[in-house]
Design brief:
The structure holds 2 protein chains of 2 kinds. Chain A is built from 15 helices and no strands. Chain A is an all-alpha fold. Chain A has one domain: ABC transporter involved in vitamin B12 uptake, BtuC. By secondary structure, chain B is an alpha/beta fold. The chains are: A mainly alpha, B alpha/beta.
Chain lengths: 363, 529
């Protein structure tokens, strides 16, 4: 008999963790002489009280869904992919190359091509550490994080020396052709009669992210590859016994993980910036780790956690704008949420389990 | 304490003197699990007291409370009639309690002497303590047949000798009460006999011994009294002389059980598995299999006897396809690739080899997977389980699992339950259901009843016999000599990576097999003599 019912484990534990994280954040805000209730109001108002806020919240959430799914897939294979940053960076390069070098007739084909470009580049960037892990035993945490730096340096070099149009001051590519502009969320929702603020970056990539989440769910729980990935992730010796090749599964899991991380740039590079700039990933690769942890590496959990972090990002930006609460402190709040939902949830789960036992015992 | 000891004679019966150990109403819960429920028991001084029970009956919890690893929720402990609190193992040692764990707690690269004084050093310099320990060790060796070379490094000692060091450690700390947890699991029969002689000597000196074991034969042979635990409760405490293995088994399980295996003589057919000069070298470059040659025929069970760690695991690993080896292995006449370069578990299964691994929790099951997912484990390529080119037919697998769980009496028969939620015996039945129902030409099975309750053992043995009777070949590896003797149609004994010889079960006995397990071939001896 489980001490904790499944619903409590999936819903109650993260919820209580978030409440604790917010409570401690409130104390911190109080300590620097600001009103936590006012801060909360500003965050909620800025992030979800208007379609403008929602537009940004969903835009950030889209990034986090992709990077969260990336980390989650690797997690299921027992691999800690902290190279989401680098894979996203390369994904952005893939999107840019695809969109700059072909005269796409319509945004739909351009989108399909960008998706393939982003996935291919992200996947290949993850393939190298995966191969080193599978064949050489080089720890994937070390190699993926190293590859983040290499990716950043590579992009820097390419933007400055190769991709920057002559005469342009900032290190970025030329703007993509107008035909490659994808519909914004406002247009999509407008088509079905829902008014939405058009001056926000949220775009069709959100739909893509949700489709990706669904496909990851299918992959993990309804395909043979997913079955093998999960088995390998739970126990490598058992996987060997069952005739599951550790090399093959490591490579596949990382290819998919890197591809998902790369996909995030369809949202940022193609959907928003319309050109490739430095710092493509904007830290979303790392946030993806927290999102996957909080979402229990389940696609539904990842989507929900990504929404929460999107809220924190957008709400935090508003907070920074309207109060004397600095950017650093907002990072502290986000870190507290990560700490409590990701790392310390056992702290909540154990007492909760005891409580459930006590309640059940009384009946 | 000295006065107390004088009142009870050696080999003493429970008499008017205060018992060495008395537990009153001990209860302990882990979350929702009541591991111990109001347990009361008295162990008389100078006796050997056995505690038997199935896995999860609460034996280890009870002893951990006595040794200060856990604190009881309720109840009290009396040592020599005085109430004591045992919050940690230091307090247990002060109270005169010593514990010999199933898995030894020795520093492998220390000498015997260094291990003995570890934690009992007197002063900052080691030399005086070591000298004292050396003297004391010599005395203990004389008194109790506990000979160990004091300057030997632990990792070079045999398992039996390592265990003696554990006992010496406890005695060096002036233990009057010695608890031994499954002490014979890793010993040869000869080593086990020696251990019981040591225990008898200790009893003669007035020491009190608590022996935790699941081997009823040992209980009958070595103890004065015995307590039976079932589901966290102490269901009976009996004088050993007044009981029988059958009664103890019934008390443990709560129903009548058949201890003997019933089987008809085998009718072996063509050779299914032929092994010729099989060698395995491990990562450290140590040769673990030194040229094994064996054949298993259809319709027979070949039992591999031996003390754990003599190459049996490596044999199963190579045959199962998850370790590489050299030599020739033929399955149904076709040569098997031993290079380990391919996903061999799959090719083995395709060749008709099913495998119940020795360690079901580490290898045979994904503990976090539901039972139905585990039913497909290793057979996930089976076309029956696929739906189209991409998807797995989970519904089909669950249906299949439901049937297999039912036919193998896995309890509860719930395909959604995670493997880790099943008891050891039911986990094993889950693995057996998966492997046996494939009706393989060859079944490799390692330690089929390790950690399995008596009731389930009976069932598992019947299923293995039934598979044999269906004309299939079975290679059985077990460290339980009883199991080998009752199941196998032919017995091969392994020692140090070699086959010491083959015997027929009706033409051999435990003594001869025990000698072979220790590396002595009695036949060769006779010839030489």
């Amino acid at each position: 008999m489980e001490a904790l019912p499944k619903w409590a484990d999936a819903v109650l534990v993260p919820l209580i963790s978030i409440v604790i994280a917010f409570a401690i954040s409130a104390l911190v805000i109080l300590a620097i002489g600001e009103n936590p209730l006012e801060a909360m109001r500003l965050m909620v108002e800025g992030a979800i009280a208007s379609t403008y806020g929602w537009g940004y919240t969903l835009f950030y959430a889209t990034n986090f869904i992709f990077t969260g799914l990336a980390v989650a897939v690797a997690f299921h294979a027992g691999l800690f992919n902290i190279g989401g940053e680098g894979q996203a960076t390369l994904g952005g390069l893939g999107v840019a190359l695809v969109l700059l070098n072909v005269a796409w007739p319509h945004w739909t084909v351009a989108l399909a091509a960008a998706v393939l470009g982003a996935m291919a580049f992200g996947a290949l960037w993850a393939l190298v550490p995966a191969w080193l892990q599978a064949k050489r035993g080089s720890h994937i945490v070390i190699t993926t994080i190293m590859f983040n730096f290499i990716a950043a340096a590579l992009l820097n070099y390419l933007l400055v020396n190769v991709l920057k149009p002559a005469g342009q001051m900032d290190p970025a590519t030329a703007r993509f052709a107008a035909a490659t502009v994808v519909p914004k969320l406002a247009h999509i929702l407008g088509a079905v009669g829902i008014p939405f603020n058009p001056r926000t970056p949220a775009n069709i990539a959100l739909v893509l992210a949700l489709v990706a989440a669904f496909l990851v769910w299918i992959l993990l729980w309804h395909t043979r590859l997913g079955y093998q990935v999960r088995a390998f992730g739970k126990s490598e010796p058992a996987a060997r016994y069952a005739g599951i090749s550790p090399v093959r599964i490591t490579l596949w899991a990382m290819l998919i993980s890197g591809g998902l991380a790369g996909l995030m740039t369809v949202n940022t590079v193609m959907g928003e910036a319309q050109r490739l700039v430095m710092n493509v990933s904007e830290g979303a690769g790392f946030i993806g780790i927290a999102v996957a942890l909080m979402g229990r590496s389940h696609p539904v959990g990842v989507v929900l956690a990504a929404l929460l972090f999107g809220f924190l990002y957008q709400g935090g930006a508003e907070l920074e704008f309207w109060t004397s609460i600095t950017r650093e402190l907002i990072v502290v709040i986000q870190a507290l949420v990560i700490l409590f939902t990701g790392a310390l949830d056992e702290m909540v789960r154990a007492p909760l389990a005891r409580l459930f036992v006590a309640i059940r015992g009384r009946r | 304490m000295e006065a107390g000891r004088a009142t009870s004679g050696p080999g003493g019966r429970p008499d008017t003197a205060a018992p060495a150990i008395e537990l009153r109403g001990i209860s302990k819960a882990f979350g929702p699990v009541q591991a111990n429920r109001a347990i009361s028991v008295r162990v008389a001084r100078g006796t050997i007291h056995g505690i038997v029970g199935e896995n999860g009956a609460g034996k280890s919890t009870l002893m951990s409370i006595l040794y200060g690893f856990y604190r009881a929720d309720e109840g009290e402990i009396l040592i020599n009639g005085a109430r004591v609190a045992i919050p940690d193992s230091e307090a247990a040692i002060r109270a005169g309690i010593g514990m010999v764990f199933q898995h030894f707690k020795l520093v492998e690269n220390f000498t015997v002497l260094e291990n003995i004084i570890l934690g009992a050093e007197e002063g900052r310099l080691l030399a005086p303590s070591l000298a004292r320990a050396r003297e004391e060790l010599a005395r203990l060796a004389r008194d109790y047949e506990l000979q160990v070379e004091p300057d030997a490094v632990i990792e070079e000692l045999s398992v039996g000798h390592q265990q003696r060091v554990e006992i010496l450690k406890a005695l060096y700390r002036k233990a009057d009460i010695l608890i031994l947890d499954e002490p014979t699991g890793v010993l040869t029969p000869a080593e086990a006999d020696h251990l019981f002689r040591i225990l008898a000597n200790l009893r003669a000196e007035g020491k009190t011994i608590v022996l935790i074991t699941h081997k009823l034969r040992e209980i009958m042979a070595a103890t004065d009294s015995v307590s039976v635990m079932r589901r966290g409760e102490m269901v009976a405490t009996l004088r050993t002389a007044d009981t029988s293995p059958e009664e103890l088994a019934e008390l443990m399980v709560g129903r009548k059980v058949l201890l003997e295996v019933e089987k008809a003589p085998a009718t072996p057919g063509r050779p299914v598995l032929e092994i010729d000069d099989l060698r395995v070298t491990d990562r450290k470059g140590v040769e673990r299999l030194k040229g094994i040659s064996l054949a298993v025929r259809a319709g027979e069970i070949l039992g591999i006897a031996g003390v754990a760690g003599n190459g049996q695991s490596e044999l199963l690993e190579v045959l199962g396809g998850y370790a590489r080896g050299r030599g020739r292995v033929r399955m149904n006449g076709a040569e098997i690739d031993l290079s380990g370069r391919h996903a061999d578990g799959q090719t083995r299964r395709a060749a008709g080899i099913a495998h119940v691994p020795e360690d079901r929790q580490r290898l045979g099951l994904i503990m976090d997977f539901a039972a139905w997912e585990n039913i497909a484990f290793g057979y996930h390529h089976d076309s029956l389980y696929q739906r189209g080119a991409l998807l797995m037919d989970n519904r089909r697998i669950r249906e299949d699992a439901r049937g297999k769980l039912g036919r193998f009496d896995v309890r509860p028969p719930d395909p959604w339950l995670a493997a880790k939620r099943f008891s050891g015996g039911n986990q094993q039945k889950l693995v057996l259901a998966r492997e046996i129902e494939r009706s393989p030409d060859l079944l490799l099975v390692g330690q089929p009843t390790r950690g399995v309750d008596i009731g389930a053992i009976e069932f598992i043995h019947r299923r293995l016999i039934a598979l044999r009777d269906a004309g299939k070949a079975i290679l059985l590896v077990s460290v339980e000599l009883d199991e080998i003797l009752s199941l196998a149609d032919r017995i091969a004994v392994m020692f140090d990576g070699r086959i010491m010889g083959e015997r027929l079960p009706e033409a051999t006995d435990e003594r001869e097999l025990g000698l072979m397990m220790a590396g002595v071939v009695p036949g060769a001896e006779r010839e030489a003599g």
